[in-house]
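Dear colleague,

Thank you for sharing your sequence with our group. We've completed the structure prediction you requested, and as agreed, I am returning the results in plain text so they can be pasted directly into your records. Please verify that the sequence below matches your submission; if there's any discrepancy, let me know and we will rerun it promptly.
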Amino acid sequence: MRVAMIGTGYVGLVSGACFADFGHVVTCIDKDESKIERLKAGIMPIFEPGLETLVETNVREERLFFSTDAAAAVRGADAVFIAVGTPSRRGDGHADLSYVYAAAQEIADLIEGFTVIVTKSTVPVGTGDEIERLIRERRPDAQFAVVSNPEFLREGAAINDFKRPDRVVVGTDDERARDVMRQLYRPLNLNETPLVFTGRRTSELIKYAANAFLALKITFINEIADLCEAVGADVQQVSKGIGLDGRIGSKFLHAGPGYGGSCFPKDTLALVRTAVDAGAPVTLVETTVKVNDARKKAMAGRIVKALGGSVAGKTVGILGLTFKPNTDDMRDAPSLDIIPALQALGAKVQAFDPEGMHEAERLLSNVDFKTGPYEALDGADVMVILTEWDRFRALDLDRVKSLLKNPVIVDLRNVYRPDEMQALGFAYSSIGRP
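Please find the predicted structure tokens below.
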């Protein structure tokens, strides 16, 4: 089948490359000429394991193309995907749908014959209705169906998530559109992937509900971690104990400094705003947002406490800046709250991240960025693990101890074991463990 993908951000680029790898002919479209030129040259705008090779292979085999001109790709497409950004709107937290609607209007002027227009961007309930209205208003003669097909990609594991998903959700009542979507995802039949067809509004809500539930789960275990510290229990054992219950599951039960990234913060906030407007407040999600924001801001206090109550004039060595490992995404990362808070208290910060340095340099000021983990610890008063990259899981701890002014470690990801660290002579602080 022929696919046009509007937007070459994280979702659009990964989805386009994976559809091409399924055997479809895909054209990824973006208005940013320099970005398209870099993609044609094989230069990825994001870090995602395996993406560069996937793109290179499908470009070489002439299934994947990049262009700034939507006309030819949209006119010949069986399906046109909208995969543009929907950031939080300044001032009220609603999703900013201006890019989505602009894409819909552009598509309206170009489609020929029956075309399935698929919303891949994360959008609030009712957005598909408005897209349909806009297109019908501009092209009353057009034959088309607007479909919701939310993405469930985890940064750092996106290719596997696309090719081996838990489920594919498709929101449409149009049988012709269902047939097109079945053909697009037919390669997943081998894995017996559930293809869940729903109404369009239901599909739109599924995406928000899924992210809100996962965010709530993270926030829940973080609060249990605080309780564990107060009563002398171990949150990792608590997580294992409850995670073995099939009704609960073990995923997203890892205590830490709070969730961040491109999805959870903006999607929980958008769901809260949608629910308030609909007169059906989601109080649990509202609380989750507040608790998570407060948690990230409070993490600097743990580092201050580990250094005896003051960081003034001291150097903090930070390992990890991105919101999670295996990505260069800095959006709503805990580091963006923790580092400025430490600096405001008089600390000097030197830091290293395997992939997030370029973006971090744009978002953080007065940070001494280093070329490796040991360089970030050299002469520091404390080592702080903010992101659990594999490179930080087996550090030479004797070397770490020799580099630090004081043998103090604050592990906000519970990478190491308290008993082993104490045996090595470190003053070791982690999350939710005695």
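Summary note from our side: The longest strand covers residues 2-6.

Kind regards,
the structure core
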